[in-house]
TrEMBL record:
This is RAE2 geranylgeranyltransferase. Residues 409-537 form the RAE1/2 domain. GO terms for biological process: intracellular protein transport; small GTPase-mediated signal transduction; vesicle-mediated transport. Its main location: cytoplasm. It is found in: Cytoplasm, Cytosol. Keywords: Cytoplasm, GTPase activation, Transferase. It comes from the Eukaryota. GO terms for molecular function: GDP-dissociation inhibitor activity; GTPase activator activity; transferase activity. Residues 571-580 have a biased composition (Acidic residues). Residues 90-166, 560-614 are annotated as: Disordered. Transmembrane segments: none annotated. Belongs to the Rab GDI family. It comes from Haliaeetus albicilla (White-tailed sea-eagle). The gene is Chml. Pfam families: RAE1_2_domI_C.
């Protein structure tokens, strides 16, 4: 690939069009030259890797906005690109992603290459309502009088939100979207970070958080009786809510208080351990609206498949995450979820890691006697030796995956002209769970992002829809899109449709979910080859963090996973051990354990002397 992060990546609008075209092409890549096979010795065998990513299926994109001529429109500020993908998208916009990098480089993506605003540390006026959040370790942060702790550092606000009337949204054309394409950072996978989740803890512990900025999700929404409503979450929200009666407020606070320490009151739920959480809620003397809010917007669990204990655990997790950074349990990384893999790449680069783009691998080389993998052969015909190999599931060929049964995720991405729930503030980050129409079908998670998240242009919203697949993504998600949005491009529409946000552009696709596959399901993989999955369908990132730590501990059982980096004063600089910067790969399988290179922005490298026991 020519971008970071695999299926966790984020794209500019033109980059996404290129990605769409690439995944709509069904042709396989043929290996024209097999000179690399001469490198395989007599006591070795190969495991060929897949030449084409088959994790994305059923890609369909639609333009609902004014389709003025966009053929000759270019992204503002676009630089000349290497012809990697060619022409892209249904509208024939031949632009490349603004995030392309040279073929072989350090793992450190340059912050300045994304957007002028990002490089200078300022944001456009339209993006500045609402606070941005920098996550820090709790012992470094000042204590809040209200919450007893605070790890919140707020950005500066520079301008008021746009004063465009909610009833008359600004008209956005397709050519405007293309022209402002670099304002978009569109995630392939839609997730939020729980403020007390494993990923936040890991970002703080490893100090990777210094490479990213975050924004609070500002509201939790519910879809009930055909309308979108805001769900009160915190104590203040509950008592300020106009939707709930005083009796309902007391009921809700009493139940949420119970959920926070439900383990201390087993007599209240033990009789319902074999029941669903929905059935348990009906016994708690809660009104139908409260049951709906708790089930779909707080616990965010299935009505039919979730047990009472699972529902109580999910509710407790939600409540424990409230107040750490804001009024909801969730954070969203500015510039998209695809920033997170790049942040880890930056930290990796500081200590000598190398990330190669547009650098394909032909095969794994396995020693017949030991059964262990010795090396890989890349498309240059170069052998690269190592002790351990980590392979993302999509690279494995069908012959290795004959016994593997995959799940699928249905995804949709929309660009709209209004929020699903207009308020005084335009700059809202919202999460909405739409319950299934038919029992047994999955609920749909909707995340709506405003322009201050740096994922879309001014006067638009980026909407992500996700659910476990039952059919194609369009069949799964279009009924929900039709409930929430206006897809009608004709001028004559009824008043109910006019009140809905208008979809300007949309894409649907199915993504493979390999998160539940056991390593033993893969045929013939050596013991020192580890498989990591692509994204799962859950809202949080716990699955990926657990998987990464498990793989690391299997390889290095005595080492700490993602340890804090050394403080500058602990680094000993020795001129005799300064390592000159090199390009490309070293064919040697051995590295010096006593030092690693630190890459600076100037390109200089210094040796970091490690402790003797390392």
């Amino acid at each position: 690939r020519n971008y970071y992060g695999g299926n966790w990546a984020s794209f500019s609008f033109s980059g996404l069009l290129s990605w769409i075209k690439e995944n709509q092409q069904k042709t396989d890549i043929n290996d024209e030259c097999e000179d690399w096979r001469k490198l395989i010795l007599g006591n070795e065998e190969v495991i060929s890797l897949s030449k084409k990513d088959k994790t994305i299926q059923h890609v369909e994109d639609f333009c609902f906005g004014d389709q003025d001529s966009a053929e000759d429109v270019e992204e503002a500020g676009a630089l000349p690109k290497l012809p990697v993908f060619g022409a892209s998208g249904a509208q024939g916009v031949a632009q490349e992603s603004g995030k392309e990098c040279p073929p072989v480089e350090s793992a450190l993506p340059e912050v300045e290459s994304a957007e002028p605003e990002k490089a200078t540390g300022t944001e456009p006026a339209s993006a500045m309502e609402g606070n941005d959040t920098e996550i820090t370790s709790e012992n470094e942060s000042s204590h809040s009088a209200a919450l007893g702790e605070s790890t919140l550092e707020s950005g500066k606000t520079e301008a008021a939100p746009s004063e465009i009337s909610a009833q008359e949204p600004k008209k956005i054309t397709y050519s405007q979207i293309v022209r402002e394409g670099r304002r978009f950072n569109i995630d392939l996978v839609s997730k939020l970070l729980y403020s007390r989740g494993l990923l936040i803890d890991l970002l703080i512990k490893s100090n990777v958080s210094r490479y990213a900025e975050f924004k609070n999700a500002t509201r939790i929404l519910a879809f009930r009786e055909g309308k979108v409503e805001q769900v009160p979450c915190s104590r203040a929200d509950v008592f300020n809510s106009r939707q709930l009666t005083m009796v309902e407020k007391r009921m809700l606070m009493k139940f949420l208080t119970f959920c926070l320490d439900y383990e201390q009151h087993p007599d209240e739920y033990q009789d319902y351990e074999n029941s669903t959480f929905a059935q348990f809620l009906r016994t708690r003397k809660l009104t139908p609206s409260l049951q709906h809010f708790i089930l779909h917007s707080i616990a965010m669990v299935s009505e039919t498949d979730c047990s009472t204990l699972e529902g109580l655990q999910a509710t407790k997790k939600f409540l424990q995450c409230l107040g750490r950074y804001g009024n909801t349990p969730f954070l969203f990384p500015l510039y998209g979820q695809g920033e997170i893999p790049q942040c880890f790449c930056r930290m990796c680069a500081v200590f000598g890691g190398i990330y190669c783009l547009r650098h394909s691998v032909q095969c794994l080389v396995v020693d017949k006697e030991s059964g262990r993998c010795k090396a890989i052969v890349d498309h240059f015909g170069q052998r690269i030796s190592a002790n351990y190999f980590i392979v993302e599931d999509s690279y494995l060929s069908e012959s290795v995956c004959t016994n593997v049964c995959y799940r699928q995720i249905s995804r949709a991405v929309l660009i709209t002209d209004q929020s699903v729930l207009n308020t005084d503030s335009e700059q809202q980050v919202s999460i909405l769970t739409v319950p299934p129409v038919d029992l047994g079908k999955p609920a749909v998670c909707v995340i709506e992002l405003c322009s201050s998240t740096m994922t879309c242009m001014k006067d638009t919203y980026l909407v992500h829809l996700t659910c476990p697949s039952t059919k194609t993504a369009r069949e799964d998600l279009e009924p929900v899109v039709q409930k929430l949005f206006n897809l009608n491009t004709e001028k004559e529409t009824d008043n109910e449709e006019l009140e809905k946000p208008r979809v300007l552009w949309a894409v649907y696709f199915n993504m493979r979910d390999s998160s539940g596959v056991d390593k033993n399901s893969y045929d013939g993989l050596p013991s020192n080859v580890y498989v990591c999955s692509g994204p799962d369908s859950a809202l949080g990132n716990d699955c990926a963090v657990k998987q990464a730590e498990t793989i690391f501990q299997e390889m290095f059982p005595t080492e700490e996973f993602c340890p804090p980096p050394p403080n500058p004063e602990d680094i000993i600089y020795d001129e005799d051990e300064i390592v000159p910067e090199e390009s490309g790969f070293s064919n040697s399988a051995e590295t010096k354990p006593e030092s690693s290179t630190e890459e600076g922005s100037s390109g200089d490298s210094t040796a970091v002397k490690k402790e003797e026991n390392e």
